[in-house]
Amino acid sequence: MRTLRLIAGLFVALLGIASVGRAALLPGLGEVSGWVAGPKDRIVSVYLYNTRNQVGYAVFAIDGKYRAVDLFPGHYEITVRTDGLEMAPVPIDVRADGRVTADLAPKAVAAAPRYTGGMTYAEARVEPYDQVYPPGEGREIVEHTCLVCHGVNWLPSKRFERAAWDAYVHYMTSEPAFRKYGLIAGASLMNPARISERERVVLLDYLTAQFGPDAKPRAVLQDEEPPLDRAALAKAQFIEYRFPNTQDWTRRFTQEVHFDANGNVYTTNPNQPASIIRVDPRTGESRIYYTPNPTSYPHGLTVDADGTVWWAGANNFVAHLDPTTGLTDQYPVTEMGLAGHTPVFTSKGDLWFSILTGNKIGHWDRATDTVTYYETPSPRGRPYGLIVDHDDKVWYVEYFTDAVVRFDPDTKTFKRFKIQSSPAQMRRLGVDSKNVIWFGVYGRVGKQGRLGRLDPKTGAVTEYDLPIEYSNPYDAWADEQDQIWVSSDNYLSRFDPKTRRFTVYPVPERTDEPKIMTTRDGAVWYAPRGAGWGGYGGAASVLYPDKNAITTLGAYYSQNSSANFVARYRGPRTPVTGAVKLSRDGPQNPELPGEKTVGRPMEGQTPGRAATENRTAD
Known about the structure:
9% of the residues lie in helices and 37% in strands. The chain has 618 residues and is mainly beta. Strands 9-7-4-5-15-42-41-40 form an eight-stranded antiparallel beta sheet. α2 crosses α4 (197-210) and α3 crosses α4. The longest helix has 14 residues, at 137-150.
C-alpha cells in the first residue's frame, strides 16, 4: 500500500498489486473499486468521469460494493447518480495498469419524485397519472389519439388556449403530415376517421381544461420502479464517450451508432452544425466530420465494407462520406419532404432506406450509382426503422398504422403484417439469426410498452409487456445468443425468448436510446439522444453486461449481424469525389394505389468537403 488519504468522505488506497480473484485488465488501463456507505440493500449508481478524455464510466454498487474496470489513465471525478443520495465529486488519479480503492460516503437527501420519459423537466410538478389525466371520456380520446404518439409527458408540458389546441388537432387530422419539411399534399398524420366531430369537441374541452394557459407544467409519476436483478447489475458497466456542449454548440445530441471493420464507432449529431462523429473506443480519440450543409440533420447512418460512411438526413436521400479525405458525395432529394431516414445495406452491396416524411422507401443501386424510390401501400404508413433480413428482403415498421411490412426487391411487392396493439406507434425493428422479426411498440394505450415478435413463415405476432411503466420501447436488436435487447426511456432491457424474462439495466443518464447496436462480444452500443436535448451533450455509449468478460474496447459486428450484411459484398467499391449526384424523379411503382405525398421541387446543391475536427485522448 503506497498512499492513504481521506478526502471529502472518500477513502483512497492505491494498491501496487492486483487483489486475488479480480479479472485481468486490458493492457495500459486501470481499475477503481470500493465501498459505498449506507444501507447494503440499496442499489447505487457510481459514476467516474475522466475529465481530460471526457469519458465516463458507470457501475452499480450492490450490497455496498462497486468495481469499475478498464479505465483510461488520468484524472477522475467520482460521484453517485442515485435518487435520494448526493455527494460532491471527489478527485482521484488512475494510472496505467493501476488499481485504486475508493470508498464513498454520500449523504442521504430527499428523493425527487421519479417521472417517466427520457426528457428532463426541470420545472415540472410530478403527479400521478390520474391526477394529470383525470378519468372520463376526454381522457379515453386523448389516450387513443395523442398519447399513443407523443407519450404521457408531452401534453402536460404545454399550456395553450383552446384556439391553439384546435390548430394542433386540425394539423394532426387535416393537413399533410410533416408539413414543416416542405410537403404540400398527402395524408395527415392521424386518420380523421378515428375521431368524430363530437369527440373532437370533447377532446378540445379536455385539453383546454387540463393543459390550458393557466396550467402548471407537470410530468407523470412513475409509480413503481421496474424489478432489477442485483446479480446482473453487479456485473454490468457502462462507458460513455462524451461530446459536451460548447459555446458554439449548445444543444449537442447524438442519434444513431454503427461500427466499421476496424472497431471504430460512428454516430450522427443532427443539431447545427450537423456532423458525423467517429470514436475509437480503445483510445477515446474522436474526429468530427461536419456535413457540407450545416442544417442537413443527419439521422441514420451505416458503414460500407470499405470503411466509408453513408448517412441520411434533410435535403438528401443519402450522402456518402469518405473519412480519409473528408469528401462527401450528396444525393439530393428531387422534392422537399423526401429526405432519407434509415439506411441499411444488403449483402449485394446495395442500400435501402426509409423515407419517413415522404411515405416511401428508397434504393441506391451500386452498379449504376443512382437512387430510386417506391411508393408504399399505406397512405399513412410512413416507414420509420428499416432492416434487411437474411434473405435480403427489406422490412420496415409503419410509424402510426399498426403494421410491420416486408418488401421483396425481386418481385417489387409489399406484404403487411398487422400487430396486436392498436392504436399504436412503432419506431424500429431487428431480425435474429432465425430470420424472426422483433420490434418495439413505442406507443399504445396502457402503462406498458411492448416488445413484439413476428414469425414471417406463419405471420404469427406475439407481444410481451415490458416491466417498465410508460416505457416507449424504441428499438429491438438481437445479440449473438438471440437474446433481444430493447431500448426505452432511461433503460436498456434484455429479453430471453426461452424464459420470456426481461433483465432491466438503468442507463447512467435520463434519456431515450433511439438506436442500439450489439457487438460480437455482447456489448450494446447506443446514442443517448434525450440527454443531449436536456443539456447533457452528445455521446456514444456502451453497456457491457459482463465487465469481467471484456476482451477489447473496440466495437465489432458479429458475422451474422443484419447491420453488417455488406461485409459479404465482394464487388467494386464506390469512390467518394465530393460530387452532387442527381436522381430521377418519380416512383418506380406509380401504379400503386393510395394517396400520394407531394413536396416542393428541390433546389440545386453545390459540392463540398466536410470540415473536420480532431479530439485526441490525453
